[in-house]
Design goal:
By secondary structure, this protein is an alpha+beta fold. The chain has one domain: Metal Binding Protein, Guanine Nucleotide Exchange Factor, Chain A, CATH 2.170.150. It has four helices and nine strands, in the order ααααβββββββββ. The chain has a six-stranded antiparallel β-sheet, with no helix packed on it.
């Protein structure tokens, strides 16, 4: 005798495979979010305690813990002078004011780094879909992400946390 009101029917192979795939995905996703930048060796390498001493709490959160500052909170978003944007962690030259543009997103945006060796990239799956993370090539500090909706000539938008950078006027 049935005690519930659910119809009894065997699970299909498709539904079983679907549940198995979901389980595997949930087990793998946390490891996908870890940054490849952390696993690499960088010219500037400090212990966590040294980084905490060197950086402000907000800088540490973004650069070392891959956090994101709130949109429209960085004065560097509206910085319009000529100059160079450098890593707040190690001073590496990252972006020139010549490639900065107003993306309307609330974060400083650039269509290209200052040179090809200034930044590195890795894949980021933290939101469940792939994104291109950008980090400082010298210390591995998390800077932001790169999107394919920028202006010419590259079509790229380097969406960078302002707290991860310092500005040096020309």
């Amino acid at each position: 005798m049935k005690t519930d009101n659910l119809p009894s029917r065997p699970a299909s192979r498709r539904s079983i495979l679907g549940w198995m795939s979901a389980g595997v995905s949930l087990a793998v996703l946390p490891s996908c979010g870890s940054s490849k930048a952390e696993a690499k060796s960088f010219p500037v390498s400090l212990s966590e305690a040294q980084w905490r001493k060197k950086l402000t709490k907000a800088e540490f959160y973004v650069l070392r813990q891959e956090g994101t500052e709130r949109a429209y909170t960085s004065p560097l978003d509206k910085e319009g002078r000529r100059g160079t944007f450098v890593c707040a962690g190690c001073g590496n030259r990252l972006y020139s004011s010549k490639t900065k543009f107003d993306s309307g997103t609330g974060w400083p945006s650039f269509y290209a780094p200052i040179d090809s060796g200034a930044v590195g990239t890795s894949r980021d799956f933290k939101l469940g879909y792939p994104r291109t993370e950008v980090h400082c090539a010298d210390c591995g500090g998390h800077l932001g992400h790169i999107f394919n909706d920028g202006p010419r000539p590259t079509g790229k938008r380097h969406c960078i946390n302002g707290i991860a950078m310092d500005f040096i006027p020309a």
